[in-house]
Amino acid sequence: MPAQLIEKLDVRVTRLGMILEPDGDPSELEGTLNPAAARSRENELLLYPRDVARGNISRIGIVRSSQSGEGYAFRRAGFALQPQAPYEIRTHPGYGCEDPRVTFIPILDRYVMTYTAFGPNGPRVAVAISDDGLTWQRIGLMRFKKPGMHVGDDKDAAFFPEPVLSPSGVKSLAFYHRPMLHLSAVDGRAAIPMIERMPFHDRESIRLGYVGLEPVLRKIEAILDVRESELVMAPDAQWGSLKLGAGTPPVRIDEGWMSLFHAVDVIDEETKPKLKYSAGIVIHDLQRPNRILYRSPHPVLEPEERSEVRGMVDNVVFPTGLDPRPDLGARVFDFYYGMADYSIGSARLTVEEPEELRQPAESAA
Q1: What's the rounded Cα separation, in Å, for the pair 49 and 34?
Q2: What's the pLDDT tens digit per position in 286-306?
Q3: How far apart are alpha carbons 120 and 224 in whole angstroms?
Q4: How many helices and strands, by DSSP H and E, does the chain display?
Q5: Dist. CA 3–CA 229, nearest whole Å
Q6: pTM higher than 0.90 for the full model?
Q7: For 253-262, how does the pLDDT look when each residue is reduced to its tens digit (9 = 90+)?
Q8: Considering only CA atoms, which of 52, 69, 50 is closest in space to residue 61?
């Protein structure tokens, strides 16, 4: 029986402030932003920011942490990936390894990183793996070869941590991705009027791709072979009307798979169109994640602080890492996000239990 739709989700988001900004190193002159987050096998929090050098050349850094009260102190520890594969390098500026997301997948006993490889053909979804979260091995570009699949510019990929069923019923590893409109990839702001004339389902949207589990268990390189892809969440008139994209890899809660996504709206359209990136929550069915059980009716985080409103790209909060905090509560999470495409912020998300799961104080005692 399909899980029931969730009519209401009570959440509280508290900003924890900026945690990293460029420190003057040449590798970060144009920003340190959009970090993946994962826990090491020793439970150390690791972040993987996109570090941007002059000319918009991107590397994926490693940031290690030590706990300080309820928060963390962070220190840079080199790079996970620097552009070197042919699909990450091109002759003119603007290339490299961008916007990683990291998921530990227990059935594979590996960390899986998806990132945007920006090379000679534009942005593509790439995969790397690691045994310890520190040393990474490239696997290659995702292969969308089935008839009818989008082939071309694609980004914002992130794997689910556990196997699920695909729409056709195959046990699979699922991942988010966002195929891009060609006109948007060429000149996003100039394309706004054309996008606004499109039906919502034709705009850039969140899709789920599926990789068959059994082939991957036999050979890890099969993680690149996409067997199915389905649109699961498109823009709408309520908010996020221009485009949607995945944010963080999902985590399991009682209601289903929960993640933060990003959504883009147009503001100040009467003068010069500007874009605003906000964050919301989506919950998927645990077994069949193409079933959406909940979608935020309004953003849970919008650009308001100066470091979110002014930067390399103004008016951006861009969630990319979600870290459960069982030490603070069963449904407490820290998330990490890019601030105006220049620095990194963190916030704490508390998800209240649904009423049917709450126990009265006397029975809990």
Answers
A1: 6
A2: 999 999 999 999 999 999 999
A3: 20
A4: 5, 22
A5: 21
A6: yes
A7: 999 999 999 9
A8: 50
